[in-house]
Write a structure and sequence with these properties.
Layout: E1 8-13, H1 29-44, H2 49-56, E2 59-69, E3 78-88, E4 92-101, E5 104-116, H3 128-138, E6 144-149, H4 151-169, H5 174-177, E7 186-192, E8 197-207, E9 210-218, H6 227-241, E10 246-252, H7 256-261, E11 265-273, E12 276-284
Parallel strand pairs: 9-10
Antiparallel strand pairs: 1-3, 2-5, 3-4, 4-5, 6-7, 7-8, 8-9, 10-12, 11-12
């Protein structure tokens, strides 16, 4: 196996707790590495695992997990855990896995999952939407789409994401989350292949030539992917297309780095909004 045989790889670093008395990774931890990589595989499919499987009415259970050792990882090694869905049958799917240190192959694995009723524990046919999503990913297809439109068009998709992130997770009062600017703003909603909304944001006119982006929200399970960046880019492109020269936003301080990586610069002092520390940030477009 070679790294280029895999579309998906997840990087991890060997921790002290994972090394045995021989000063190499204890053999059982490699299964944990593969299992962690499978979790990240679902994230790259833009698939909130628990929510998706609940919607489909089943769950995935490990039927077989094999590991073959070629060389050992050591303390502080950076490893790339690569996963590929090799086969999807009627009710089972097979993953091939490989762990690389640089270009050196350390470990290979085969994981077989069975799709089954979560209560009865009896196998079920793998649903077509799940099958299509996985096969599309392995073909290199895009897993999401960003749509732009009015509040009338996207209220039913954007509202659940904003409610989950701002009201339930961040405890922002419901009456502060919804305002009249929703009615005039341009809204972006990112959905996956099953039509599930995963991220959203809105674009408003702050002043002539100056756009304002707000209500940026990404479902917790999908953070760490590029979904928030894709919503942000779509809104900035819409602002540029209508002739704006600058975009500003009020960023929560804990995600300031996200906006800096997108080219925004902070200006002014930190202030509080809805009980959360914010900083104003701007960039030219």
């Amino acid at each position: 196996m070679k790294r280029q045989d895999f579309r998906f790889c997840h990087r991890m670093r060997v921790r002290w707790v994972e090394v045995d008395m021989q000063k190499i990774v204890f053999n059982g931890h490699y299964l944990m590495y593969f299992d962690t990589a499978v979790t990240e595989y679902w994230r790259h499919l833009a698939m909130p695992y628990a929510e998706t499987l609940h919607q489909l009415g089943g769950d995935l259970f490990v039927k077989k997990a094999s590991v073959e050792y070629h060389a050992s990882a050591e303390m502080d090694d950076f490893m790339d855990i690569c996963m590929r869905c090799d086969r999807i049958g009627n009710s089972s799917m097979t993953f091939a896995g490989a762990i690389f240190r640089g270009d050196e192959l350390l470990i290979t694995s085969e994981l077989v999952y069975v799709y089954a009723d979560p209560v009865a524990k009896k196998s079920l046919p793998i649903p077509t939407p799940l099958r299509d999503m996985m096969q599309g990913f392995e073909r290199g297809e895009d897993m999401v789409q960003v749509h732009l439109g009015s509040w009338h068009d996207f209220k039913n998709l954007a509202s659940p994401v904003r409610n989950e992130v701002f009201v339930q997770e961040q405890n922002i009062p419901l009456e502060m989350e919804w305002d009249h600017e929703d009615d005039t703003a341009l809204h972006a909603v990112l959905i996956n292949r099953m039509g599930m909304p995963l991220a959203t944001g809105r674009l408003m006119q702050h002043a002539p030539g100056v756009a304002r982006i707000g209500r940026m929200a990404v479902k917790r399970q999908m953070r760490g992917s590029d979904l928030g960046h894709r919503v942000l880019q779509a809104l900035m492109q819409a602002a540029k297309d209508r002739g704006d020269k600058q975009v500003l936003l009020h960023a929560q301080c804990r995600v300031e780095g996200f906006y800096k990586r997108a080219g925004f610069a902070p200006q002014g002092a930190v202030f509080e909004e809805a009980g959360i520390a914010h900083i104003e940030m701007v960039r030219a477009i």
